[in-house]
TrEMBL record:
<feature type="compositionally biased region" description="Polar residues">
    <location>
        <begin position="64"/>
        <end position="73"/>
    </location>
</feature>
<dbReference type="InterPro" id="IPR016902">
    <property type="entry name" value="Vps41"/>
</dbReference>
<dbReference type="GO" id="GO:0005770">
    <property type="term" value="C:late endosome"/>
</dbReference>
<dbReference type="GO" id="GO:0034058">
    <property type="term" value="P:endosomal vesicle fusion"/>
</dbReference>
<dbReference type="InterPro" id="IPR057780">
    <property type="entry name" value="Beta-prop_Vps41"/>
</dbReference>
<dbReference type="InterPro" id="IPR000547">
    <property type="entry name" value="Clathrin_H-chain/VPS_repeat"/>
</dbReference>
<keyword id="KW-0653">Protein transport</keyword>
<feature type="compositionally biased region" description="Polar residues">
    <location>
        <begin position="19"/>
        <end position="42"/>
    </location>
</feature>
<dbReference type="Pfam" id="PF23411">
    <property type="entry name" value="Beta-prop_Vps41"/>
</dbReference>
<comment type="function">
    <text>Required for vacuolar assembly and vacuolar traffic.</text>
</comment>
<dbReference type="InterPro" id="IPR011990">
    <property type="entry name" value="TPR-like_helical_dom_sf"/>
</dbReference>
<feature type="region of interest" description="Disordered">
    <location>
        <begin position="1"/>
        <end position="135"/>
    </location>
</feature>
<feature type="domain" description="Vps41 beta-propeller">
    <location>
        <begin position="134"/>
        <end position="497"/>
    </location>
</feature>
<dbReference type="GO" id="GO:0000329">
    <property type="term" value="C:fungal-type vacuole membrane"/>
</dbReference>
<dbReference type="InterPro" id="IPR036322">
    <property type="entry name" value="WD40_repeat_dom_sf"/>
</dbReference>
<dbReference type="GO" id="GO:0030897">
    <property type="term" value="C:HOPS complex"/>
</dbReference>
<dbReference type="InterPro" id="IPR001680">
    <property type="entry name" value="WD40_rpt"/>
</dbReference>
Length: 1047
């Protein structure tokens, strides 16, 4: 019997170790390069290399007959695995790299592997990759620092607690986050095996120093047994912490399987089996104990104390000490066996009852059926079920129904078969470099479903027995949920979890399948979405941004821009960032149609940048955008400056009738719209005129732009004349004298000075004539200083109206006007001017000799009222019957008929006389009066309001007995003799409350007797005048309120 003693192992802090160690984990999917061994804290991926097997790799399988003997022969072939594309899974960070003091020999190995990596990558690039099934995460926390100084050798798990045994004989208790809970040193050599009880209170460890230690984590209870020989494995009875027997089973190099139980007299030792070589592994489930030795696997029933089966180890198996056996109870009746390159599934069921009872008492109560057995192309370092465990059938269903759907195995590619150990060739004796371990999912038929290569530190140096994999329920781990697995190597702890929908989305994103990723995100339930929020990597916004970046990198800017409204939504900063990205890529036009102008409204610089882009590249879009966008979202003044600068660089458009270039027209349209939006109507006016906008006159009148028109007179009249010509072409009657522009100029001479108009129209005489003519028609004295110029203009453009002007105006110079008419041979006008100048005889001579118009001569004589002129006319008419007839037709007060008849020579024949129709009206009174309707209405309203106010102020005022003085807040009728002052605003105050009214009482109020009516009224008026003179600011209440001194 081994020695036993209580053990109170001290808790240890991290210790020093001089062995070199590199804790980097290589990026999965490639062989190591020289950079893979760099330990300068480079974050790398733990994700495994994923093999796209797609169900094409399958092991030959032969099901074993359940009624066969315990010895089973298995004939299987090796797995022919395919090399598939290996891509690292993103999103998982590795722990920090280790120290940089690796030896030179390790660096040389790294360089050799680097060459293999470069060749292997080329083979994988063109192959399609399937989505992995698992995800990997390096355990973080203090455990990484511990493994830099020691190496892991054993692992046990229970209730999310890990018991990690090391080669230094130390046990660390950590949780799944890597937080160290407790450390103690129970052994002096490597810990070969460890196990938790179901309560996670007791930890049992076995060591090659021959010691077995069971330690309670919550109490001081502990047990230590010296077995004298190295112990390889240990297993605690189910519910160890709840039973008083404290039973466990262990085995090792001594070749015996020992069961120890605690009794009244101490621990009792029972040898369950011996004599078949070392015991490599043992596991206890309910009443069944399974162990493995050199010959195979045996299962023992503790209740019947009988061995119920023996599963033989294949004859051609490699050495048992180099490739360990792994036993895993999937449930109470299913045992998974992985040994070297073989996997067997054993299902235990109750032995059926037979009619013959002979010998039944010597038979075990259970029988074992091998439901599946197959050989792999790798060594098995660990095996667990990849499907939920299934309870034992109670209705007699076949064991085949309980076969797990798939297995998760930790595969080790053996670099050497160790079949020629006796060779003297040193090259063959040298230790071969190991491959990366792999996690494979194998179906129950042997089909490889997926394979991921794990990147672990210094994997080239590790053997099959250096890796351990255990299953853990991670439902209570912080931030995690569901079942997971833990894989350890001497320097690494990797947590393996099944991939969920979020991982699937991340995989789609990493492989640039963004459309599918966004579709999957839409399928997430509300709890999943709310748990992650907008900042999550799988939120539609995050995925959409990655999608946009991908599309931008590929040059698909149109599709990238179409995603922006969904991705950016109402996030102003995100919108602006993406717009600037498009701008930097010279693809701003792609995103412009999607840029929001409200909900959200972006910064004004963004909109101004877009307008600047249109200004340079697409001016039609610039004009359309300015018309459509709200003017409040950008700085209108800044845009005006930019457009104006561009217009200044364009070919100048003169004020002639020819239209400017199309681009110039667009720029002017933009400026007109911008100035109007900025309420700078005066600056917009020149562009409206040059663009021939028909609403110019309405714009001028609506916004009172008459002052701005004074410098745009020529443009205004030109535009108006074009409208008149257009109406004539359309068949609408129009006269130049009906020009709307001329009428506007004439009606607003106070805002548009006459001198400014004349200066601008000097080079366009016809327009000047129209203006001065309209001005004269309104008021003959308005343009008196330009009368001589107007004579010339009438003589050129309206000769038939010149005589009317000469008669109506007195402002022109007679001599200048006569010379102008003389130069143009305007006889009628010359006659009139000579008459004005007093040279009546010369005027009459012109009428008689040049015109021969008797009626005109008579009228001229009448106008002059000169007897000598009449004498000359009569003298001239003596020999001209026509003149005599005309004179006779005009006999009146001016001509004495007798005088005329006496001068007629005898025998002169005068044609028939007729009654003359004299009186021809020549003058037309110009009636241009603009009825100011609005002014008339305003005057009427003002009058009505004034009457209303006067009536209100002069009406009576009802004062209540409790009314108070606003100034002193005392009752108005506090004393009968108090003088009260009533103002038109209906405020009543004490006279004594007003400054300067203290001596007002010295003036006696006049009597109101009927006999003194006249004097009393006069006295009241006088008294009121005195009071009014004392009140300088009007109503004191209103005044103080206006000053803010009275509420």
């Amino acid at each position: 019997m081994a020695d036993t003693a209580p053990l109170n192992g001290p808790e240890l802090d991290p210790w020093q170790d001089t062995r070199p160690f590199s804790s980097d984990v290589l990026t999965n999917g490639c062989n190591p390069s020289a950079d893979d061994y760099n330990t300068n804290d480079v974050p790398l991926s733990l994700n495994g290399i994923h093999h796209s097997t797609n169900g094409n790799t399958k092991a030959e399988l032969r099901h074993m007959n359940s009624s066969s003997d315990n010895k089973n022969a298995l004939d299987t072939g090796y797995v022919d695995s395919e090399n598939a594309a290996r891509e690292p899974e993103s999103g998982v960070e590795e722990s920090e790299s280790g120290e940089e003091d690796d030896d030179e020999e390790g660096e040389e190995d790294d360089e050799e592997v680097e060459g293999e990596d470069e060749e292997g990558e080329d083979d994988y690039e063109d192959e399609e990759e399937d989505e992995p099934t698992l995800k990997y995460e390096r355990m973080s926390g203090a455990i990484n620092d511990l493994l830099k100084k020691d190496s892991a050798s054993a692992l046990a798990v229970s209730n999310n607690l890990l018991a990690l045994g090391t080669h230094n004989g130390i046990v660390h208790i950590v949780d799944l986050t890597g937080k160290r809970i407790k450390s103690y040193k129970p052994h002096q050599a490597s810990v070969s095996d460890a196990e938790f009880d179901s309560t996670a209170d007791f930890v049992a460890t076995a060591s090659i120093d021959g010691q077995v230690v069971i330690q309670s984590l919550s109490t001081h209870e502990s047990y230590m047994f010296d077995m004298k020989r190295p112990i390889r494995t240990i297993a605690l009875e189910p519910n160890f912490g709840k039973k008083s027997t404290r039973s466990f089973v262990c085995g090792g190099m001594a070749g015996t399987l020992v069961l120890r139980e605690k009794g009244w007299l101490g621990h009792k030792e029972t040898v369950l089996h011996s004599g078949e070589g070392p015991v490599w592994h043992v596991r206890w489930r309910e009443r069944l104990i399974a162990w493995a030795n050199d010959l195979g696997v045996k299962i023992y029933d503790t209740q019947s104390q009988m061995r119920i089966t023996f599963i033989e180890r294949p004859a051609d198996s490699p050495r048992a000490d180099l490739f360990k056996c792994t036993l895993h109870w999937q449930d109470d009746t299913t045992l998974l066996i992985g040994w070297a390159d073989y996997i067997k599934i054993a299902c235990i069921r109750e032995r059926p009852h037979t009619a013959t009872a002979s010998g039944s008492s010597n038979q075990p109560p259970f029988i074992v059926e091998i439901t599946a057995a197959f050989q792999l192309d790798c060594m098995v370092s660990g095996i667990v079920s990849n499907s939920p465990s299934m309870p034992r059938s109670k209705d007699g269903s076949s064991a085949q129904d309980k076969t797990p759907q798939s297995f998760l195995i930790l595969a080790y590619q053996a670099p050497d078969t160790y079949g020629d150990e006796m060779t003297e060739d040193r090259a063959r004796q040298a230790r071969k470099t190991a491959e990366r371990p792999e996690l494979r999912i194998i179906s129950h038929t042997g089909e490889e479903l997926s394979a991921d290569a794990l990147g672990v530190t210094n994997y080239q140096a590790w053997s099959c027995n250096d890796y351990v994999m255990v299953e853990v329920d991670g439902s209570s781990s912080p931030g995690k949920s569901g079942r997971c697995h833990v894989v350890i190597s001497p320097k690494d702890i990797v947590i393996v979890r099944p991939r969920d929908r979020k991982d699937h989305i991340l995989w789609l994103v990493d492989h640039q399948l963004y459309d599918e990723a966004l579709e999957e995100v839409g399928k997430l339930d509300d709890n999943e979405c709310s748990a992650d929020g907008d900042q999550s990597e799988i939120s539609p916004i995050a995925i959409g941004e990655r999608y946009i970046r991908h599309l931008v990198a590929e040059g698909n800017f149109a599709k990238a821009a179409s995603l922006c409204p969904t991705v950016c939504s109402t996030d102003v900063e995100r919108w602006e960032n993406w717009i600037f990205v498009f701008a930097q890529s010279q693809q701003l036009q792609a995103i412009i149609p999607h840029v929001p102008t409200e909900a959200p409204q972006l910064g004004h610089l963004v909109y101004e940048m877009i307008l600047a882009h249109f200004l340079v590249h697409d001016r039609q879009s610039l004009m359309r955008t300015i018309n459509e966008w709200p003017k409040s979202i950008y700085d209108v003044s800044a845009v005006i400056v930019a457009v104006q600068a561009e217009l200044d660089r364009s070919p100048s458009s003169s004020s002639s009738r020819s239209l400017p270039a199309p681009d110039t027209v667009i720029l002017m349209e933009c400026l007109a719209e911008l100035y109007t939006a900025n309420r700078q109507y005066g600056k917009a006016l020149p562009f409206f005129l040059r663009l021939r906008r028909q609403n110019v006159f309405e714009l001028i009148r609506e916004h009172n732009l008459f002052t701005d028109v004074k410098d745009q007179v020529l443009l205004l009249i030109e535009f108006d004349q074009e409208l008149l010509e257009k109406r004539k072409q359309e068949g609408t009657e129009a006269e130049a004298s009906s020009s709307e522009a001329i009428a506007l100029l004439v009606d607003h001479i106070h805002s548009i000075p006459i001198v400014r108009v004349v200066q601008q129209l000097r080079d366009r005489p016809f327009y000047l004539f129209l203006y001065l003519d309209a001005l004269f028609k309104k008021d003959s004295q308005l343009g008196f200083e330009f009368a001589d110029l107007q004579v010339t203009l009438f003589a050129e453009f309206a000769t038939h109206r010149l005589i009317d002007y000469l008669r109506a105006s007195t402002s022109y110079n007679l001599e200048t006007a006569y010379n102008e008419c003389k130069n143009r041979d305007l006889v009628t006008e010359m006659v009139f001017l000579l008459g004005r100048m007093g040279n009546n005889k010369k005027a009459l001579t012109l009428i008689i000799e040049r015109l021969g118009d008797v009626h005109m001569a008579i009228e001229f004589a009448k106008e002059q009222s000169d007897d000598d002129l009449w004498e000359d006319l009569l003298k001239y008419s003596e020999t001209r019957p026509t003149f005599i007839r005309g004179l006779l037709e005009n006999v009146g007060a001016e001509i004495d008929p007798i005088r005329l008849i006496r001068r007629i020579k005898n025998g002169l024949e005068i044609p028939g006389l007729k009654e003359a129709l004299i009186k021809i009206l020549h003058d037309f009174h110009l009636q241009i009066s603009l009825l100011e309707g609005c002014q008339t209405i305003l005057n009427g309203d003002s009058s009505d309001l004034a009457k209303t106010r006067s009536k209100g102020q002069n009406s009576g005022f009802f004062m209540k007995s409790r009314s108070i003085c606003v100034l002193c807040t005392q009752p108005l009728q506090r004393l009968p003799q108090d003088l009260l002052l009533l103002f038109l605003c209906h405020h009543v105050v004490h006279a004594s409350c007003i400054d300067g009214m203290t001596d007002i009482y010295s003036h006696e109020e006049p009597s109101e007797g009927m006999s003194m009516l006249a004097s009393g009224v006069s006295a009241k008026i006088a008294f009121a005048s005195v009071v009014r003179a004392r009140i300088h600011q009007g109503c004191p209440v209103c005044y103080r309120r206006s000053e803010g001194n009275l509420m």
